[in-house]
Amino acid sequence: MSSKTKLLQKLGVEHPIFLSPMAGVSPISLSAAVTNSGGLGSIPLASIDFRQDDGLHKLNALIEDYAAGIDKPRNVVNLNFFCHEVEHAPDTAQVDNWKQLYQKAIHASDDVLAKAQFTNGNVSFRELERDHPAKYSLLMDYLGTLRPKAVTFHFGIPNNATMKWLQQKTGCLVLVTATSVAEAVFLVEKGVDGIVLQGYEAGGHRGNFLADETSDENLSTHALFSQVKKYVDTLPVDRAPYLVPAGGIGDAATIRYYLAQGADAVQLGTAFLATPESLTAKFFSAAVDGTRADTAMVELVSGKRARAVRTAFIDALVGLNEFRRDELPGYGYAYNAYKSLKPLVEQDIGFYLAGQNYHQISKGKLTEHVMHELINGLK
Fold first, then answer.
1. Which residues does residue 306 pair with via DSSP β-bridges, in sequence order?
2. Distance between CA atoms of 365 and 123, rounded to whole angstroms?
3. 217 inside domain
4. CATH for 265
5. How far is CA 60 from CA 50, 66, 79, in A?
6. 354-378 pLDDT per residue, tens
7. Residue 304, in any domain of the structure
8. CA distances for 155 relative to 71, 116, 205, 278, angstroms
9. Does residue 353 belong to any structural domain of this protein?
10. If phi over 0 gives left and psi between -120 and 50 gives alpha, with beta otherwise, what is residue 307?
11. pTM given for the model
């Protein structure tokens, strides 16, 4: 039995297509549609603060909605956590710098900027492990009962005890994002079940955790997959992780290529951005018809690098910035401030995350139709 077939059997799905976890973009209906079409739907959990008493309630509500919308067991799902370095609350100077930058970029008044909320909107899984053992235990108990087929981590990896507990007590597969060969080797040594190989052309937040922006090689999906596959082929079979390339994959021909080269599955997100289920369908439906705008890696919105469509807002923010990264609020705090500011201004300051090939997507097609075309193209 091939490793791809084993992976599909373990996940309880028919086709090697994973939905990228896209917080703020993919509602439960989109995830359910992918699962009902034979792929693996994903539920992004980065915005849930599991330190709070209502954290598990929010998670359970998502699971209940997902279960109601699928024709498979509720545990046929990928639950995605962010596992970045724990950020500190911004100081007064960082907050003032952020307000100064946004005032120049969008001409917001002092009264409006004063309403920005600099609380942590993306609490790292690592913080839960390290500082909140009681809440951590409750979450682990919940996962032990649910027994999700896959749990994935972005921006890094949890501690060894967490990973072993998930693998042994829930039976789930633990997959982690890598953006370089060094990160892939590190994850293999940690004993992950699979690696999501995120190429530089991928949309959304870049998941690097060993290299910073200055030392990131920025490998394309093809280059990253090829090099990691060559390394994995030298490993004993029982140590070889499942490989799931992600980035620039939007049609059946590209999927067929990666599967033929030894990938066990692929992960797609941008392909679904213009579907009616997507929360950014309006923007991307218009973008497909209009003049193509470039994408760029932007860190000034969330506090971490993320590939997004260049808009007037993004260009102004980047062009007018005079601050170093450490002179502005960190990830989570910066992102929450931006999100709290967004509904208070009249102009569109959307942060439209997308891969470099977003202009190739079709508008108006339901998620199930996109999946149907992809699956038929694999036959």
1. 205, 298
2. 34
3. yes
4. 3.20.20.70
5. 12, 10, 12
6. 999 999 998 889 999 999 999 999 9
7. no
8. 32, 26, 9, 24
9. no
10. beta
11. 0.96
Annotated catalytic residue within 15, 84, 154, 205:
205
Q: Is 205 annotated as catalytic?
A: yes
pLDDT digits (tens, 9 = 90+) for 297-319: 999 999 999 999 999 999 999 99
Total domains present in the chain: 1
* Domain boundaries, position 192: 3-84+122-273+361-377
| Higher pLDDT pick, 171 / 379 | 171
Token pair of 327, please?
Answer: 């002179």
Q: Which residue in 145, 189, 135, 144 sits closest to 165, CA to CA?
A: 144
**How many Cβ atoms from other residues are within 10 Å of residue 321's Cβ?**
18
Strand pairing report for 78-82 and 295-298: unpaired
φ and ψ at residue 195, rounded to 5 degrees: -130, 125
Specify the pLDDT at position 214. 84
CA distances from 221 to 107, 157, 376 (A): 38, 20, 23
Instruction: Enter the tokens of residue 208.
Output: 């690097």
Is residue 157 assigned to a domain? yes
**Strand ranges of the sheet holding 194-198, from the earlier edge strand across to the other edge:** 17-19, 266-268, 242-246, 194-198, 173-178, 150-154, 78-82, 42-44
